[in-house]
Amino acid sequence: MSSEKELVLNYDLIVCGAGPAGALAAATAAQAGLKVALLEKHTLPRHKTCGGGTPMVMQSLLHELAPEAFVEANVISLRQTWKFGDPYLAAINPPGVDRPLSIWMMQRSVFDNALAQRAVQAGAELRDGLAVRSVEVENDCVRVRAQAIKPNGDLSKGDTLIATARTVIGADGANGITAKAAKLRQKQTIALGMEVEFPHEWGTGHPDLRPEVAHLEYGAVKRGYAWIFPKADHLNVGAGLFRPHRQDARRDHQIREELRQAIFNYLEALQVPYDRAQMKFHAHPLPLWGGKEPLNTADGRILLVGDAAGLINPAFGDGILHAAKSGIIAATCVIDGTTTAYSDRIHDEFAGSFDAARRLAYFFYQYPKIFYQYGVKNAKAAHIATQLLAGELPFDAILGRAMRRVGTGMLSSLLPVKTSLNFRL
Ligand SMILES: Cc1cc2nc3c(=O)[nH]c(=O)nc-3n(C[C@H](O)[C@H](O)[C@H](O)COP(=O)(O)OP(=O)(O)OC[C@H]3O[C@@H](n4cnc5c(N)ncnc54)[C@H](O)[C@@H]3O)c2cc1C
Which residue among 39, 41, 215, 227 is best mutated to probe the pocket of ligand 1, counting the most ligand atoms within 8 A of its Cβ? Predict the structure, then answer.
């Protein structure tokens, strides 16, 4: 006979997953007076595989949470390279910009924990160390079965929580189970990212290794890029593949090896000494935006947010801001009783820009050297890229211009060659 117990509880809303999407959904709904459960598999704070860079506009979504609580570095310059050479150091705010921008660098363990605690302050019931095992729609509610992986309040390890609510928000990320249970997002494009963190003493290594500079390298990974992001006392070094050959890059060992090698090469290029045996690599899927698709069940009982909804920008591979925005939109739909219109709200917010980002990514990652030469190496490009990252400028507003600029640059570089050939002939 099993000694494990079952606890049955009822809520207005259950949020599965306490990343930025889930925590902000829970905080928004709890703030409005709903009885909210926020269920998280890991015990917080937990490591999250991520570069941890997000545009400073994130602040507008966080209300009273002060940036000092989690921002470790404020990036105002980008140092970009092609195959670790041809460096281009650009200010994010060149002279003449109206509104200065920057990119915040944080540790996801700290940021996500701060957001979850904010949800608790707003009244949400956080239950971490509790893995959601099933999500089932019944006649008048959704039933979530979750198992305690670690002791949690009134639950011991192995105990089960059976929670019911009118609505469930699936914020359980790229590998979550809510999308599958709801039979949503059955065909996904999954890219792959990898990162490693290790201590860094500022003032050592390459002179451009500084707390206000982020590094991006475009030739080290085919169909992707590598990065070095500054944190308070360490570097986050990573690489991602953003245009996979296959629909799902998760189990491709060759890609993992390529990403790992790009990371080693980047460290060598920036004169950062490392010991392979000491490095802890983390790889994680990147569910890229693949076009409009339903993100709520037809009855509006289950909504998907963040990575669970495939809201990763296919050009840059970022998802924190979109996760946060979608969590707030989903909670607002729950509060307003408009959950059946949730997909439309998300499409209104993201589809135009992300569809254009997808087209841009197709060409960028096909011809990265040409884009590097004629698109990236431009005095305004770092500012425009940060505006795009922040969602202040949609990709559809720049796609035509970017393609023309790269095309014209490429043609003009070919003209002297033609002339000299003609001359010789
Ligand atoms: C290597 C890499 C680097 C990246 N760098 C950046 C970057 O610099 N900037 C950026 O904007 N984006 C970056 N991203 C993307 C970013 O990490 C995601 O888009 C973001 O975390 C999505 O947030 P989320 O809340 O939707 O999901 P997540 O942050 O993945 O949170 C999901 C949560 O659900 C929990 N969960 C999963 N299953 C269950 C379950 N069964 N029961 C309960 N809980 C569950 C997980 O433990 C997790 O805490 C990067 C991604 C990778 C892989």
Answer: 41
pLDDT for 351-393, tens place per residue? 999 999 999 999 999 999 999 999 999 999 999 999 999 999 9
Number of domains in the chain: 1
Whether 21 lines ligand 1, by a CB cut-off of 6 Å, is yes
Residue 276 lies in a domain: no
Separation of CA 210 and ligand 1 centre (Å)? 27
The answer to whether the CB of 356 falls within 8 A of the CB of 313 is no
CATH number, residue 329: 3.50.50.60
> Do residues 169 and 16 touch, judged by C-beta distance below 8 A?
yes
Q: Which atom of ligand 1 is nearest to the CA of 195?
A: 1
Which strands, in side-by-side order, build the sheet including 189-199? 85-91, 77-82, 213-217, 224-230, 234-241, 189-199, 282-288
Nearest to 320 by CA among 28, 43, 62, 140: 62
- pLDDT tens digits, 40-83: 999 999 999 999 999 999 999 997 899 999 999 999 999 999 99
Task: Name the residue at shortest CA distance from atom 27 of ligand 1.
Answer: 173
Does some domain include residue 129?
Answer: yes
- pTM of the predicted model, to two decimals? 0.96
Is residue 194 packed enough to be buried (19+ CB in 10 Å), middle (13-18) or exposed (0-12)? buried
Q: Measured from the CA of 286, which atom of ligand 1 is nearest?
A: 53
